[in-house]
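hiii so my PI (J.) wants the whole complex modelled not just the main chain, which honestly fair. so below is everything: two entries, each one labled with what it is. i double checked the lines twice but i was tired so who knows lol
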Amino acid sequence: MTAPTTSPTRTLPRLPRSALVGLGIGALFLLALFGRYEPKVAVSILLSGLTLGFLYFMVSAGLSLIFGLMDVLNFAHGTLFMLGAYVGLAVFNAPFLAGWSTDVRFLTALVMGGLVAGALGALTELSLIRPLYSRPIYQVLLTLGLTFVGGELIKAIWGTAGFFMPTPSFFNTQGANCPSPDLLAFFTDHCSSILILGRAFPSYRLFVIGLGLVMFLAVALLLRKTRLGIIIRAGVQDGEMVQALGINVRRVFTLVFALGAALAGIGGVAAAPIIGVNLGIGQEFLLQSFISIVIGGMGSFGGATVGALLVGLARAFGDQLVLSGVQIPFVQEVIRLSPSIARASTVIIMGIVLLIRPAGLFGKKD
Amino acid sequence: MRFLKSNAGGLALVAALIAFPFVLSLLTGEALNTGTPKFWQGMLAQVFILGVYALSYDLLMGVTGVLSFGHAMFFGAGAYTAGILLKYAHWGLLPVIAAVIVVTLVQSLLVGALSLRVKGVYYAMVTLAFAQMFFILAEASDFREYTGAEDGLQGIPVPAWLSPTHERLTFYFVSLAFCVCVYLIVRRIVSSPTGRVLVAIRDNEQRAQTVGFNTFAFKLIAMALSGVLAGLAGMMSALWNLSANAGMLSTGTTINALLMVIIGGAGTLSGSLLGAGFLQLVGYWLNDAFGPRWPLLFGLVYIVIVLFLPYGIIGTWRARRRQG
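here's the output for the full assembly
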């Protein structure tokens, strides 16, 4: 028997302290939520938050993996997300698929969105990022320029108008017995919403949560259980050493870049039926995933996940709060605000985290 | 005398720019305040305003080596502060300038104190997030009364003597003087003891720290200075456009600053002005030639420069001259 080899990693949360912090914040949040609203409203806010959170996760996971491995902060990641959404919509509406059901078209759109974004990510890494590893600042300058070029290209191809993407029919059936009384009934009637504690919740959003979970597990398994994952984790620790051991780190870089980009592209397609397809979504998701990463800690996959979920929950809670009105002590009337205020206020959460713990919840102090 | 000799090129350029409207008027035979001369005065006035904005960014990025991706927030804050005070509070120009300085100073100190807690690309990311917050707030319908939300703040009343439409020549000279003053100030700052510390931080922050400088404080100073200058440039821009809009706070505006500084050469100061001229004039020609798709070409030019001309035009030229 050899001694069990456990390797400390930065790519997965180092339990238990950091996880406890995340759980603690989550518990506080739940307490506030259930204290304020009746259970069925609270659960529905919670689920909305998880939906948003997993969408943010799809962007921040790749961002964080890429940064952890090759120290490149990819400012174009939001653009890849947006590109995924546009490509997904184009595939969804493609004439040669018109004969198929919306479900098949949507699945094809998901796959194609991921593939196109992934291929573009790989191409970017190979042609533009690679020559600049010796000049890290210029890499960031370059990716910021790519957001600009990407946005303009999308504008040139698809125009400035926004688009609406319908949910596939699997999640969009209207009928006499809708909304579905429970999850099991949903699989026979495919209603657009499901009753949860007596309150209707869109079934497509549950699918997004499921998709996010699957993606999280897949990446976590990849990092934990495969040879590639071991190389990635080792590369995060010490890239030069990995190279010295005879492993082609550059090829792994390209792969991880493509993988991160593909995650964002799939995220874009998955988000399209919820948030629509327009030129603003790239910046919006980049911003929220930056905030997730600051909260979670740079270069940590677990941190990016927890951060994204927290930001999603905060967004859902904030939206509910500003819509129903904020009661400030000593002021008679209730203040009603637009959702933009909730959107902007997540930046304040980031500010607070920077004040208390600049390295983020899961980040290494340096 | 020595000042005259060592700055002959710059002085000649300023003299040429002062003479420019009159020469152009003579050549075209049109009056100063009409047609071609008026148009080109406007073009150059915009170059001067952009030049100040680029200089402010160069002070932060080129001189101090702090890469901020949120510079647009100061530019936009200056524009909105000036616009709102002129339009709704009916303040005079001087108190407005003072207010712009105070607002952008407080803003840059607050944002700086938070974001300078992290370094490098991390800092770039955090500043971008802050800038996006201001962008979202400018577009939010809650403050439509003051900011005009997504329509922007329209119809800013500019004092009659400075009106860019009726008194174009005055505006031209005011913006020229503004640009020259800021250039001299920034150059003075860079060669002051404080400025040398800033350069030291860029070259090797750890060393500067070891020598005993509080690099956080110095970086905060650089950020405040550059924030205030950018705010003033934003104010001038609002005066020129007679409006302020959320686009002034967008990532695009930050990219413009980067573009100008990188084209000219980071840390060279005069390069920023060259970059501003390039951005405005080439932008105008590209717009003429390619219509609304020209920003795409600019983006591509930017990428090519980042890849192949890292020290910019002035920087590469200086390096060549030093070698030769």
